[in-house]
């Protein structure tokens, strides 16, 4: 049965600094959070970090003597997708060595996750592979604490030039220094954008703009690269690109390529509906279980899944932005009663 469709609202971040414009966006945001739990977030240059809109119009990210230049996140995104694809093109035995399950960083293999075990076929996990990247905290840093997911990333250490993949004959090249710098530049920009979104959420909930700031001094911010295979999903047989689930955290900002597949469970009448891929630079945002708890159920943490048509591979990049590890999440006073 084909999925239906609904209108997904679009919120604009950075459109204007005027109070009236901010209030207008916050009203749209509140309606989206309470009605569907999903929305598109269009990011304009004024919402980007100061480094990306400096007078030089170019930001330089330093990483192990490698300088990564980018104008802003809208210009950085295409490169992040290219670098993601280059990583997943690496041989499986190489990727499998780049994993740290203790810190929840690095590579996770194809079908390693099963997000909806009740409906997924036994022995068949999500037909996707991934790579986790967080804040890079050295073991010598006072913030280092694996129990709180605060520690170093694990990085590819391989250089490949020339050659071609066996599957689609694309040129294959991989520079681990450039790859690392590109990913950390994107991680940095997404933290800034996510923080501004959290402030807008506070306004939407009739709270002071800085209400949540204290809980995001040391946020848990995880970037994940995802590659979905072109195996066709068969829901009747329990084969899913990504099983149905809700996110446990506060907010997720998803960048995706132009391949459809993301669906949300809207209600009992409409069931599963498609979320069309937005233009590059516009994110698909959903609120998680933590936000639903914080608002005493007023905000929706919506079930979502990915269904592959089998036509081609799909690439997406979710960014999970959650409060500091020790944050106590209890219903807000204005959400009780």
Automatic annotation (TrEMBL):
Transmembrane segments: none annotated. GO terms for molecular function: metal ion binding; oxidoreductase activity. Keywords: Iron, Metal-binding, Oxidoreductase. Residues 219-323 form the Fe2OG dioxygenase domain. It holds the Pfam family DIOX_N. Belongs to the iron/ascorbate-dependent oxidoreductase family. This is Fe2OG dioxygenase domain-containing protein.
């Amino acid at each position: 049965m084909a999925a239906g469709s609904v209108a997904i609202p679009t919120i604009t971040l950075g459109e204007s600094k005027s109070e009236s414009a901010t209030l207008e966006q916050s009203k749209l945001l509140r309606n989206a959070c309470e009605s569907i739990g999903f929305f598109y977030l269009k990011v304009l240059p004024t919402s980007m970090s100061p480094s990306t809109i400096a007078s030089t119009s170019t930001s330089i990210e330093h990483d192990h003597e490698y300088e990564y230049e980018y104008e802003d996140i809208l210009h950085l995104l295409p490169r992040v997708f290219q670098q993601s694809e280059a990583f997943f093109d690496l041989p499986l035995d190489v990727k499998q060595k780049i994993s740290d399950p203790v810190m929840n960083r690095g590579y996770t293999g194809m079908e390693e996750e099963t997000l909806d075990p009740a409906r997924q076929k036994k022995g068949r996990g999500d037909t996707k592979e991934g790579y986790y990247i967080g804040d890079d905290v050295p073991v010598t840093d006072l913030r280092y604490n694996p129990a709180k997911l605060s520690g170093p990333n694990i990085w590819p250490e391989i250089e490949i030039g020339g050659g071609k993949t066996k599957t689609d004959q694309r040129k294959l090249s991989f520079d681990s220094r450039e790859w690392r710098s590109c990913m950390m530049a994107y991680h940095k920009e997404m933290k800034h954008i996510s923080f501004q979104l959290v402030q807008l959420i506070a306004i939407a909930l009739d709270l002071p703009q800085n209400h949540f700031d204290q809980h995001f001094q040391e946020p848990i911010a995880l970037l994940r690269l995802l590659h979905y295979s072109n195996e066709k999903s068969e829901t009747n047989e329990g084969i899913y690109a990504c099983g149905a689930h809700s996110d446990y955290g506060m907010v997720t900002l998803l960048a995706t390529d132009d391949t459809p597949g993301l669906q949300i469970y809207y209600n009992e009448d409409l069931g599963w509906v498609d979320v069309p891929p937005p233009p590059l630079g516009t994110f698909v945002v959903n609120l998680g279980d933590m936000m639903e708890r914080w608002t005493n159920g007023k905000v929706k943490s919506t079930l979502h899944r990915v269904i592959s048509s089998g036509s081609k591979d799909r690439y997406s990049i979710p960014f999970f932005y959650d409060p500091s590890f020790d944050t106590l999440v209890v219903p807000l006073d204005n959400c009780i009663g």
